[in-house]
Write a structure and sequence with these properties.
The structure holds two protein chains of two kinds.
Chain A: E1 4-5, E2 11-14, E3 19-25, E4 33-38, E5 45-50, E6 54-58, E7 61-66, E8 71-76, E9 85-93, E10 96-102, E11 106-111
Parallel strand pairs in A: 2-11
Antiparallel strand pairs in A: 1-3, 3-8, 4-5, 4-9, 6-7, 7-8, 9-10, 9-11
Chain B: E1 4-7, E2 10-13, E3 19-25, E4 31-37, E5 43-51, E6 54-57, E7 64-66, E8 76-78, E9 87-94, E10 100-102, E11 106-110
Classes of the chains: A mainly beta, B mainly beta.
Chain lengths: 112, 111
């Protein structure tokens, strides 16, 4: 079982709709959770982080965390073509908060 | 203008050659990291350093070496012992929180 699992996609969403990206993790003691956006050929860019159960909103982005289910998600409202990218879910290891484990990413495509 | 720089952007290595990738940050971050990304895969940790003159192996350290003589700099050497080095190499740093921030990356190709 992978430590961080994501559906590789591609996930195709019409422009203006809500894109929902999901991630599960295996380390029940994980404390911090991150979403990175990576455009093709570029480095990852941090877009959201969440530490507590519940929702965290930042502009068009909402991160949702459910530690009991070991599940974290990212919602993108009013999807734009510029949101087309690969989204990486990342989780800290309980044994070492300084190390982050990355999922393999979900490729999101926003169709006009 | 604070940030992380990596050089070169593209690097070509011949068989049996060692090459060094540069990573510099002016964010005053204590921790620095090196990751490798292969096509369609997530990032895998090579080495990390939480303080000057100290570093630890990550999950795939074999065939790589690092040094941390200055807070701002964390160079990665890909040695000839690394049999499959073609990949996208990413350097990151971390300040007071758990969040890591990435440089632009170096794409290494073996000829």
């Amino acid at each position: 079982q992978k430590e961080v699992e994501q559906n590789s996609g591609p996930l195709s969403v019409p422009e203006g709709a809500i894109a929902s990206l999901n991630c599960t993790y295996s380390d029940r003691g994980s404390q911090s959770f991150f979403w990175y956006r990576q455009y093709s050929g570029k480095s990852p860019e941090l877009i959201m982080f969440i530490y507590s159960n519940g929702d965290k909103e930042d502009g068009r982005f909402t991160a949702q965390l459910n530690k009991a289910s070991q599940y974290v998600s990212l919602l993108i409202r009013d999807s734009q073509p510029s949101d087309s990218a690969t989204y990486l879910c990342a989780v800290t290891r309980y044994s070492s908060a300084s190390k982050i484990i990355f999922g393999s990413g979900t490729r999101l495509s926003i169709r006009p | 203008d604070g940030g992380i720089t990596q050089s070169p952007k593209y690097l070509f290595r011949k068989e049996g050659q060692n090459v060094t990738l540069s990573c510099e940050q002016n964010l005053n971050h204590d921790a620095m990291y090196w990751y490798r990304q292969d096509p369609g895969q997530g990032l895998r940790l090579i080495y990390y350093s939480q303080i000057v003159n100290d570093f630890q192996k990550g999950d795939i350290a074999e065939g790589y070496s690092v040094s941390r003589e200055k807070k701002e700099s964390f160079p990665l050497t890909v040695t000839s012992a690394q049999k499959n080095p073609t990949a996208f190499y990413l350097c990151a740093s971390r300040g007071g929180g758990d969040e890591q921030f990435f440089g632009p990356g170096t794409r290494l190709t073996v000829l």
